[in-house]
Give the backbone structure.
Amino acid sequence: MGPADLGRVLEALPQIDDPNVLVGYNTSDDAGVVKISDDLALIQTVDVFTPVVDDPYNYGQIAAANSISDVYAMGGTPVCALNIMGFPQDLFDLQVMIDILLGAYDKAKEAGISIVGGHTIKDKELKYGLSVTGKIHPDKIITNAGAKPGDILFLTKPLGSGVISTAVRAGKATDEDARECIELMRKLNRAAAEAMTAAEAHSATDITGFGFLGHAWEMAKGSKAGMKIYSQKVPILPKAFDCIKMGTVPGGSHSNRPFLEKDVTYSENVKFDMQVALCDAQTSGGLFIAIAPDKVDLFLHEMDKRGEKEWAVEVGEVIEDKPGKIIVI
Ligand code: CO
Ligand code: CO
Ligand code: CO
């Protein structure tokens, strides 16, 4: 289901009128947030997908990192998680289920939380994901709608996981390419979340199926501001361009680019392959963060403290001009 379909469905649902719902589904944010008390709000999120890699343990790790990321993208701290799995028992040995869950349990542990239960159904196709609960102070929520003109935009993981994992499954990538891509997808966004919270980021979201420019566009639209993206600065795994040339581009990545066409303008030097890379559907991508200019040093210092300074890459700026539109130079 594409973003246009999803938009139509959400529009058909009633408006939320509970005053304790601080973030609902009408802002295309990463998670819902509900106020429990004056100093505590609950973050709730769920994500499920079919395998992006062959190895069950890595699949579990990636699914867990991806689901927990939606809590991080709101500036929250994860508390616990639940498993959701569709399992075709006639196709797979139970050991596959065990290995997926072990991967997720290890990743959850790395994030400092426990997986406290879950639910499995019989399914024709393998699917796995987690529902994650997080917490945050109600005044500290970072949505994708708070960017302000002048803010500096950061991305905390390179792009390319969509086209590269598609190439891996088609047997068109090396083991080394596959390993690099898996490392990226199973990496937690924890350091980036802690650093952006310390630097009082104005806005953030994580990069997933809607691609880098899709998520940037949602932020621009929600924040009623424009954006300038420096394509040459955006970190992209070099292998991604080989994959785009070979044509191993997932369906989502194909549809993101035309969907965004009316609001994204590319300057002449931004070639087609670069446009595809910037729209590539990511699995468990990095955080995209808007930081006030006078907080940039603090943000980089906080990343450095966590050993991740090189992961914080400046990729653009928020501008006053053309709210909801993006210029890629
Ligand atoms: Co998200
Ligand atoms: Co999500
Ligand atoms: Co958010």
Q: What stands out?
A: Residues 56-72 form the longest helix (17 residues). Residues 30, 45, 47, 70, 208 surround cobalt (II) ion (ligand 2) (CB under 6 Å). The two ends are 30 Å apart (CA to CA). The longest strand covers residues 77-87.
